[in-house]
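Example 3.2
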Amino acid sequence: MDPIVAASLLANRRVAWVVADCSFTVTAVVDPDGLLSPSGARIDVSLLDAVPELIGSEADLDAVFAGQINRLELQFVEREDRLGVPIYLRLVVVAADRPPNATALYCVFEDVSELGVSRQRLMQSRNELLLAQRSLAETVADLKASNGELRRLTDMKSVFLSVAAHELRTPLAVISSYADLLAQGLVGDLESRQLQSVEVIHDGAQRLLQITDNLLDMTRIEAGRLELVLQVLDAGELIASIVDEQRPLFQQSGQRLSIALQPGLSNALMDELRATQIVVNLLSNARKYTPAGGSVDVVLSQAADPSELLLTVSDTGVGIAPEDQPEIGTWLFRAKSANQINAKGVGLGLNITRSLVELHGGRFWFESTPGQGSAFHVTFLAADPEPVED
């Protein structure tokens, strides 16, 4: 093909055209867009000098000449155009006849910079993805190791707390029992001041026994060893009996305790021992943070969801500061309001309560306003929920 004809056919495309004879000597060059710069290509020079990308492919060029292969193709050849701008070229080498029937090589360069840049970006993204995957794999491995260490430390903590609580429980029970004997005068009469001291000993031992019981419960819950025995119970009857048992404590504290039960309530699925613990903990918490003259109200009603019963224990106590509210019910957390009224405790009660409620399949939440009081809500699953009307 005449170079002028080739140029006219390729005028609308960024294409360069180099023709070489059987001796690999360049006989024609068509490069309207300067794709072969800066090295360029000239007539009468070696094809390998004009197209250095073909160095090492001499055997393939001979095969093209001999008709053994149809073409030689190189993808994404990197060069610079006449302006020094990096470009990507696709190089195709084919054999053809030229007058007078002599075989020639046609080397066609096509500008594929857009595709080359996209490919480069894709490769870069792929490499970044591989690096990210490798980093993620390393992070996962580190997390697995950290989780394993955390589980080991958690197991050690649980074992330590369990052993410590068990070891403390027996001597504390002995101390409490002997304090009772002394208070009852079974080992001799005591003076008034001595009785007061014995009462202090007894109360302190009882508080420590409660703490050890809570620690044992938490270790069982964390280890997944605390199992509930759910029964169909009259929740209203159970809660009313607990309130009656707790009422003297509220009277001693100068607080009013009331209970309201919605008529016609469904029975509930409860573990009687643990449900009692939930109610007692909520009442104890309300009594602890409500000053003398305040009130605590217990309400049991059907929840908005008919499959649940809703228990609410509200008080007129000191309330909880907004910044403390997200931590309520977490391990060993005590709100700042505990310092205002010198409330005793170590921050286990509500944590255990939340866990026991969730083991029952219920929900735990609260609302509180500093200086006005708090309302704690828990739900229990109804044993015979009313069908939902369409």
